[in-house]
UniProtKB/TrEMBL annotation, chain A:
Domain of life: Bacteria
Stated family: Belongs to the binding-protein-dependent transport system permease family.
Ranges where the ABC transmembrane type-1 domain occurs: 80-260
Classification via Pfam families: BPD_transp_1 (PF00528)
Record's protein name: ABC transporter permease
Annotated localization: Cell membrane
Transmembrane segment boundaries: 24-48, 88-106, 118-138, 232-256
InterPro entries tied to this protein: MetI-like (IPR000515), MetI-like_sf (IPR035906)
Automatic annotation (TrEMBL), chain B:
Protein name (database record): Aliphatic sulfonates import ATP-binding protein SsuB 2
Keyword annotations of the record: ATP-binding, Nucleotide-binding, Transport
SMART domains per record: AAA (SM00382)
Pfam short name (any one): ABC_tran
A molecular function (GO) term: ATP binding
Segments forming a coiled coil: none
Family: Belongs to the ABC transporter superfamily.
Chain ranges passing through the membrane: none
InterPro entries reported in the protein's UniProt record: AAA+_ATPase (IPR003593), ABC_transporter-like_ATP-bd (IPR003439), ABC_transporter_ATP-bind (IPR050166), P-loop_NTPase (IPR027417)
Keyword Nucleotide-binding appears in the UniProt entry: yes
Keyword Nucleotide-binding part of the UniProt annotation: yes
Gene for this chain: ssuB
ABC transporter domain segment(s): 10-233
Length: 276, 246
C-alpha cells in the first residue's frame, strides 16, 4: 500500500455537504429526540401532580415559579456558584492527586502490592464518615469541606488511572528516551495522550459523584450552596424549592457536559479515525 | 587514548548479555561480541532470526543496561543518536510533522524540513495523523524523524520488515538518497542478505545464539554500481566466504 491516502479511504466527514438538507435533519434529530423526551417527562409529571394534588408533590409550573423567583432575587446564582466552586476545587484536587498516585502504583508493581489494600480500604469508607471526620479534625471550614469530597473521590481515580498506567505502551517511552524528549514533552506528548481515555472515564464518573457528595458536605457544615438551601427548604417542607434547586444544578451540569466535557473530549480524540 | 574528534568510530565490546526468564532459566544472548563501525560508514548487522541482533541494538540505544562489557558511540558534531525501530513508533495523536519536530532538540524545533519531506515524498502528508498513513508511508515518516535530528549515529532495526518487496525496495532507495545527502555513521540490523549487500559498506556477520561476530564482509563498490549483475556476483562471493549463512 504505497499509494497516497487520497486514493484510498477518506477520513470520516470528507463526504459531508453532499446533501446539506438531509445532513441538517440528521444533525437535528438527536436534539429533537432529547427535547421531546424531556417534554414528555414534564407532561407526565404535570399530570401526576394534577391527579394527586399535595404540597409534597408540586407540579412543574410551581417549581418553575420558584426557580424564577430565586433567580430574580439572586439567591439561586449565589448558591449555585458556591456549590460549583466547591465541585471544581474538589474535582481538580481529586484528579491531580488520584492520577499521580494511580500512575505511580500502576508503574511500580511492588508499591502497588503494598498500597493496594489501602486503596480498597479507602474505596469502602462511607462518604459520610470522611465528611464528619474532616469537620471534626479540621473544623467547619472550606478546606475541610473540599478535602473531604476529594478524599472520597481519590480512590476511584487511583483505581482507574492505575489501569491506565498498566496499559502504557513501553515502545513510546523507549522512542522518547532515544530521541531525548524532555520531561515536559514526555508528559505532554507521550504520557497524557495514552492516559486520556482513562482520564476521561475518571472525570466523567468523577464529576457526577463529586457534586452529590458536595451537597452532603454543604448540608452538614456550610452556610451556603445548593446543599445548604435544600436542607433549609427541607426544614420548611418546601418541596417546590428543593426541586427548583436540584433541577437548576442538574441543568448547570448538563451545560458543562455539553459545552466543556464533550468538546474537550472531541479535541483530545481528533486523531482517531472514528471518535469514540 | 583515542583523541576525541571526528574520527572516533562506533566501537562495541559486549562481553556477555544474559536474559533470565521468570522460571529462573537463563539464556545467553550475546557473548564476546565486538566490532567497529568507521565514521560515516553504513554497516549492517546480519544474522539469523533470534540471534540477538535487536538485543545488541537495544544495548547501543541505551534501552538495556543489564549487560557486561562496554561500547563507545561516535562523537563529534551532535552527540545525538537516532533510531528507526521495527515498527514505525509514531505517536498516533500527533501529526507527521509534529512527530518529526518533537524528536528534534529545542534549538532545531523550527528548522526548515521542506527538503527532507520532499525527498521522502511526504510533502503533502505533514498534517496527517499516523492512522491515516499506510505502513510504507509511516515508515517514511519514521525515517524523516531519524534523519531530521542530524544524529551522530543512526540505528535501524529491520526497518523494512513486514513490507511487500516493491515497497521495501522503494524505501531502500529513499533511505540511500537521504543518507547520501549527509552520510552518517549507521548500523542497520537485518536478516536480509540482499538488503545488506545493496545498502552497506560493511556487513558484520553474526553467528547463532549466543551471538558473536563470525566475520566481516566489506562491500567497497560504490552503491550506484551495484546493479543486478554485480549484486549476484557479490552474493556469490559472500556465500563463498560465509557458506551456510543466509
Amino acid at each position: 500500500m504505497m499509494s497516497p491516502p487520497d486514493t484510498g479511504d477518506r477520513p470520516p466527514g470528507a463526504a459531508a455537504g453532499t446533501s446539506s438538507q438531509s445532513g441538517l435533519a440528521a444533525a437535528l434529530t438527536p436534539v429533537l429526540t432529547v427535547a421531546v423526551s424531556l417534554l414528555g417527562l414534564c407532561l407526565l409529571w404535570g399530570l401526576a401532580a394534577h391527579a394527586w394534588p399535595s404540597r409534597a408533590f408540586p407540579g412543574p409550573g410551581q417549581v418553575w415559579q420558584v426557580l424564577l423567583a430565586e433567580a430574580a432575587n439572586g439567591d439561586l446564582f449565589y448558591h449555585l456558584g458556591a456549590t460549583l466552586g466547591r465541585v471544581a476545587a474538589a474535582y481538580v484536587v481529586a484528579m491531580v492527586v488520584g492520577s499521580l498516585i494511580g500512575v505511580l502504583l500502576g508503574s511500580h508493581r511492588s508499591a502497588d502490592r503494598f498500597f493496594a489494600p489501602w486503596v480498597v480500604l479507602f474505596l469502602n469508607i462511607p462518604a459520610l464518615v470522611v465528611i464528619v471526620l474532616a469537620y471534626i479534625w479540621f473544623g467547619l471550614n472550606e478546606a475541610a469541606a473540599i478535602g473531604a469530597v476529594a478524599v472520597n473521590k481519590i480512590p476511584n481515580v487511583v483505581v482507574t488511572m492505575r489501569e491506565g498506567a498498566r496499559a502504557l505502551d513501553p515502545t513510546y517511552a523507549e522512542m522518547a528516551a532515544v530521541y531525548r524528549f524532555g520531561l515536559l514533552d514526555r508528559i505532554r506528548h507521550v504520557l497524557l495522550p495514552q492516559l486520556q481515555p482513562y482520564l476521561a472515564a475518571a472525570s466523567r464518573s468523577g464529576i457526577a459523584l463529586i457534586w452529590k457528595i458536595v451537597l452532603v458536605v454543604e448540608l452538614l457544615g456550610r452556610s451556603n450552596g445548593v446543599g445548604f438551601q435544600i436542607y433549609l427548604y427541607f426544614q420548611l417542607f418546601d418541596v417546590a424549592a428543593i426541586l427548583a434547586y436540584t433541577l437548576a444544578f442538574v441543568a448547570v451540569m448538563l451545560v458543562i457536559e455539553l459545552l466543556v466535557v464533550q468538546p474537550v473530549e472531541r479535541h483530545a480524540t481528533r486523531w482517531r479515525r472514528r471518535p469514540a | 587514548m583515542q583523541p576525541v574528534g571526528a574520527a572516533v568510530p562506533l566501537r562495541v565490546d559486549i562481553a556477555e548479555k544474559t536474559f533470565r526468564s521468570a522460571q529462573g532459566v537463563s539464556i545467553t544472548a550475546l557473548q564476546d561480541l565486538s566490532f567497529e563501525v568507521r565514521q560515516g560508514e553504513f554497516a549492517c548487522l546480519l544474522g539469523p532470526s533470534g540471534c540477538g541482533k535487536t538485543t545488541t541494538l537495544r544495548i547501543l540505544l541505551g534501552l538495556d543496561k543489564d549487560f557486561s562489557g562496554s561500547f563507545h558511540l561516535p562523537e563529534g558534531g551532535s552527540d545525538r543518536i537516532a533510531a528507526v525501530f521495527q515498527e514505525p513508533v509514531l505517536l498516533p495523536w500527533r501529526t507527521v510533522e509534529q512527530n518529526v519536530r518533537l524528536a528534534l532538540p529545542k534549538s532545531l524545533r523550527t528548522k526548515n524540513l521542506d527538503g527532507l519531506f520532499d525527498t521522502l515524498g511526504l510533502a503533502g502528508m505533514r498534517s496527517l495523523y499516523p492512522a491515516e498513513l499506510s505502513l510504507g508511508l509511516a515508515r517514511r515518516a519514521a525515517l524523516a524523524r531519524a534523519f531530521a535530528t542530524e544524529p551522530a549515529v543512526l540505528f535501524l532495526d529491520e526497518p523494512f520488515a513486514s513490507l511487500d518487496e516493491r515497497t521495501a525496495e522503494r524505501l531502500r532507495h529513499l533511505l540511500l538518497t537521504v543518507w547520501s545527502a549527509r552520510p552518517t555513521t549507521a548500523l542497520m540490523v537485518t536478516h536480509n542478505l540482499r538488503e545488506a549487500l545493496m545498502l552497506s559498506d560493511r556487513i558484520i556477520v553474526l553467528a547463532q545464539r549466543p551471538a558473536h561476530v563470525l566475520g566481516m564482509f566489506d562491500v567497497r563498490l560504490p552503491r550506484h554500481y551495484r546493479n543486478p549483475q554485480v549484486m549476484s556476483d557479490l552474493l556469490r562471493s559472500f556465500q563463498q566466504k560465509f557458506p551456510g549463512v543466509a
